[in-house]
Amino acid sequence: MQPFSGMGGLQKAPHFLLERASMITKETIKTYVEAWLEKGDYFLVDIMMEGDDRIVIEIDHADGVWIEDCAELSRYLQEQMGDELGDYELEVGSAGLGQPFKVEQQYQNHVGDQVEVVDAEGKKIIGTLKAVDGRHFTVTTQEKQVPEGKKRPVKVDVDLLFSMDDVRSTKYLLNFK
């Protein structure tokens, strides 16, 4: 009997890649998370698919995130998605205080707070988040300026306008003073 020659003379069995019967997407998860979020003042910050077996969901709230609510969202997703989540490790948590902002609502929640902005060139600016308008925000910082007719500089408040899309990062500045 001749070896199978349809594979260029190879005598080994061909290898096949097996895919999961149902692949979970970020959009699928987002749909379920947003349905759960309708019940309160929490908002979605990010969904990360890490490797082939880990899903990390970050939520936030103006008053902080409670562990009980993270557990409730996790249970809700397991109930709603059932076997689809079977092989995945699911982690639900807060965005993290002191981590860079990812969504507009985080900027809104910190109006009036001290923030650190790293602009497009990498320069750090520290000031008070004054306002948020769509994808733009204003930070009030102090700069030394020499008033007309004076010799010594004085600190004056200066408003700087930024676009969320053009800065490297913005984060709440933890102040322990």
Salient structural properties:
3-stranded mixed β-sheet, alpha+beta, disordered N terminus, 3 helices, 177 residues
Can you describe what's shown?
The protein has 177 residues and is an alpha+beta fold. Helix content is 19%, strand content 34%. It is built from three helices and eight strands, in the order H-E-E-H-E-H-E-E-E-E-E. It has helices at 26-37, 67-81, 104-109; strands at 43-50, 54-60, 89-94, 114-118, 124-133, 136-145, 154-163, 169-172. Helix 1 packs across helix 2 (67-81). The protein is elongated, with a radius of gyration of 25 Å. Mean pLDDT is 84; it is low at 1-21.
Please give the share of residues in helix. 10-25%
Report the count of strand segments.
8
Mean pLDDT: 84
The shape, in one word, is elongated
H and E string: HEEHEHEEEEE
Oligomer: single chain
Distance between the termini: 85 Å
| DSSP helical segment count | 3
Task: Describe the structure concisely for a colleague.
By secondary structure, the protein is α+β, with helices and mostly antiparallel strands.
